[in-house]
Amino acid sequence: MNLLIQDAGRYYREHFGEPDFIVRSPGRINLIGEHIDYNGGFVLPAAIDNAVYVSIGKRTDTKIALYSVDYQEHFEIELTAIQKTQVHWANYVLSVVVTLQEAGYRLGGFNAVVRGDIPIGSGLSSSAAVECAVIFGLNQLLALDLDTMQMVKLAQRAENEFIGVKCGIMDQFASMLGKQDQVIQLDCRSLAYQYFHFQPNEYQLLLLNTKVKHSLADSEYNQRRLDCEAGVAHLNRIFPEVSSLRDATAEMIESELKGLSDDVYDHCLYAVQEIKRVQEACIDLVNEDYVSFGKKMFETHKGLSEMYRVSCPELDFLVTFAGKHKDVVGARMMGGGFGGCTINLIKKEGVTDFIDRASETYLETFGILPGAYPVTISAGTSLVQAQF
Ligand code: GLA
């Protein structure tokens, strides 16, 4: 049995007695469509097999008692007195509790043990995984009667309001609704979605982790969102039909936003180009044309690096290196940026050679051995059925 499940059960027993159940909630990748969810376009995420496991059980009082196996740390707080704490990992659990309380749900006390193997700060959305696991667990434990979409939206709200990162809906959606071997094409405006089978015979998805996270990440993220909103507000005065960058065209941006701040212009133009690129990339997927899909990944990286300006030297280095490897057909930074992982689409036979070479030169250049994780696309948030 999965050791993480065992740990989540064992530590719960050591600290609190018998858990009611364990929830598994995965991290996510995103094939293409970066910084597009909050701009109303399409994204192509999938859940992965790295996940967070939360064992959970009721208490008879009004406390929340938590233990993180990974940080080997306890945390306790009264349900009525929750506020953001210095205990970073606990905040993600508390964010969900507060969001539920603010939405009018009356919660009882509970214990939870958190254990996971999603590398933190790597752009794989470990935070969304915790939020989804907790909301799914509380929904079950306290019979809150939330449906899946309500849980996704509340988990996103928890991140937006309590944590303070104005993220879009992609991470929570992918963690909750992932399916084995399927990527999700999500229309972030209507929230309509469809699954695409993704198991190319010849190719492997591979993540390389820069193992850096530059501290500007959260504030710059929120600033990008504001810049895009400023662009939309401006366009909307001239084109009332534009209520998000999904409705805008490159020509509109060229004619109306040039001369405004360079940031607003460049960021909006990137978003409009990326929205179009994802739609074309979906056609490549249907045609199983992975070479053409991979080219678009490189284009996305260029846009994210030069126009959206959310990359960093470490990410640029790994993508440039990937571009020179004969077996890599696509590579780009993934997620919010300023560190974390690159996602690479590579011929299976080249994986080992690429990892070896990339690791060696990255180590030489930055003094860090990067992480390398071949991706397995897995199911979304669910109860663990195994004995624990
Ligand atoms: C982070 C956010 C997502 C999304 C990506 C960029 O992961 O949480 O909502 O905006 O960045 O695509």
Automatic annotation (TrEMBL):
Molecular function via GO: ATP binding; galactokinase activity; metal ion binding
Enzyme Commission number: 2.7.1.6
Gene3D superfamilies on file: 3.30.230.10, GHMP kinase, C-terminal domain
Any matching Pfam family: GHMP_kinases_N
Transmembrane segments: none
A biological process term (GO) from this entry: galactose metabolic process
Ranges where the GHMP kinase C-terminal domain occurs: 285-355
Class of enzymatic activity (EC top level): transferase
Record GO cellular component, one term: cytosol
InterPro entries linked: Galactokinase, Galactokinase_CS, GalKase_N, GHMP_kinase_C_dom, GHMP_kinase_C_sf, GHMP_kinase_N_dom, GHMP_knse_ATP-bd_CS, Mevalonate/galactokinase
Parts forming coiled coils: none
Residue ranges constituting the GHMP kinase N-terminal domain according to the UniProt record: 91-179
Residues in Galactokinase N-terminal domain copies: 12-57
Keywords: ATP-binding, Carbohydrate metabolism, Cytoplasm, Galactose metabolism, Kinase, Magnesium, Metal-binding, Nucleotide-binding, Transferase
PANTHER family for the chain: GALACTOKINASE-RELATED (PTHR10457:SF7), MEVALONATE KINASE/GALACTOKINASE (PTHR10457)
Family: Belongs to the GHMP kinase family. GalK subfamily.
Name of protein: Galactokinase
Organism (species): Sediminibacterium sp. KACHI17
